[in-house]
Amino acid sequence: MGRRNNTIVSDFILLGLTDSKEVRLVLFHLFLLIYLVTVLGNAGMILIIRLDLQLHTPMYFFLSQLSFLDLSYSSVITPKTLENLIASTKHISFVGCLAQMYFFVFLGGTEFLLLATMAYDRYVAICKPLQYPVIMSPPLCCSLLIASYLIGFSESLVNVLFMNNLHFCDSNVVHHFFCDTAPILALSCTDTHDVETMIFILGGSTLVASLITISVSYASILSTILKIKSTSGKQKAFSTCASHLLGVTIFYGTMIFTYLKPRSSYSLGKDQVASVFYTIVIPMLNPLIYSLRNKEVKRAVIRLLQKRESTS
Q1: Which pLDDT score, from 0 to 100, does residue 258 have?
Q2: How far apart are CA 48 and CA 27, in angstroms?
Q3: Band of the pLDDT at 7, cuts 50, 70, 90?
Q4: Which of 20, 43, 81, 119 has the fewest CB atoms nearer than 10 Å to its CB?
Q5: CA 65, 71, 75, 78 torsion: positive or negative?
Q6: Which long-range contacts does 273-277 make (Cβ < 8 Å, 24+ apart)?
Q7: Which residues fall within 8 angstroms of residue 124, CB to CB, at 6 or more apart?
Q8: From the CA atom positions of the chain, what is the Rg in Å?
Q9: Helix (H, G, I), strand (E, B) or coil at 180
Q10: Residues 29-81 pLDDT 10s
């Protein structure tokens, strides 16, 4: 067979998670429930932070952006996954596949950097409380947020441009439930070494930079907390970053498990389970983690409900 240009490939077939009709039906209802909770939880978090003036601080500004990213991130993957679970055909157009991959990498990369920014915010709040309002000024917060989006955008754009230049000549069957980079690379009949190297450099740089920021921030936070003499003071300081630390551990843990390993150790079953976790489950967990463990968010909900009752 001669080499075919990637423009000839008009679509891909997403094999999904299972061939069993009964299991697909169960997964459809489960993922639909998770997606509804994700939409309501993240949209609710954004609305609460926007409506309650006491939450107009850098910490909650970044938290509202995290909710927006999780909502967008989930919406890129879950609706198509739900469609394929009940559809007889599981096609996705070539352009649609690249678009899904682009937004997946864009939003994922941006979330990595945003979590690092939130760690720095907690560092300033705990280690330099008197200087916090000056350091974490609105211009700096906006600059950090814009930088996160721009880096994520640039990284994703380069990734998709490289992927668009690949040639596919044997199969268009993707052994995954969405257009991730590794399964698409596996379909290419041309050498993917340069593309894989580029992805490793860009993704690795983002991961290492954000991990260093988070590690240094939390090392400084731990050092400061240990110097606090009162038990209540230590508990209060730790409570301000416990939710973020839990969210970071879950998100980074599943991403590292999936992507930072040799290609030869790729396991379809294990990687799909991890992919389901970080694309569908984690966006639902984040608003629960940050609301259930956060007294200020609970108080904000009570204030908004009381305000509504008083005006009705």
Answers
A1: 73
A2: 31
A3: very low
A4: 20
A5: positive
A6: 275/176, 275/177, 275/178, 275/180, 276/17, 276/177
A7: 131, 132, 135, 136
A8: 21
A9: coil
A10: 999 999 999 999 999 999 989 988 888 999 999 999 999 999 998 999 999 99
Q: Which two structure tokens, joined as six digits, stand for 129?
A: 């409380």
Q: Are 138 and 62 in contact (CB under 8 A)?
A: no
Pull the structure tokens for residue 273: 């389970």
SS3 13: strand
Closest CA to 116 of 218, 233, 227, 9: 218
- Rounded to whole angstroms, the Cα distance separating 308 from 9 reads 55
Tokens found for residue 11: 């679509």
11, 94 in Cβ contact below 8 A?
A: yes
Q: Is the pLDDT of residue 9 over 80?
A: no
pLDDT over threshold 70, residue 2: no
Task: Report whether 113 contacts 210 (CB < 8 A).
Answer: yes
The CA distance from 117 to 16, in Å, is 35
The CA-based dihedral angle spanning residues 284, 103, 117, 281, taken in that order and rounded to the nearest 10 degrees: 20
Length of the chain equals 312
* DSSP helix/strand/coil, 53: helix
Rounded to a whole number, what is the distance in angstroms from the first to the last CA of the chain? 72
C-alpha span between 261 and 106 (Å, rounded): 21
Secondary structure class of 93 (helix, strand, coil): strand
On average, the pLDDT of the chain sits at 86
Contact 115, 247 (CB under 8 A): yes
**Which has more confidence, 282 or 294?**
282
How far apart (Å, rounded) are the C-alpha atoms in residues 99 and 111? 18
- β-pair partners for 92: 12
**pLDDT for the residue 182:** 84
pTM over 0.85: yes
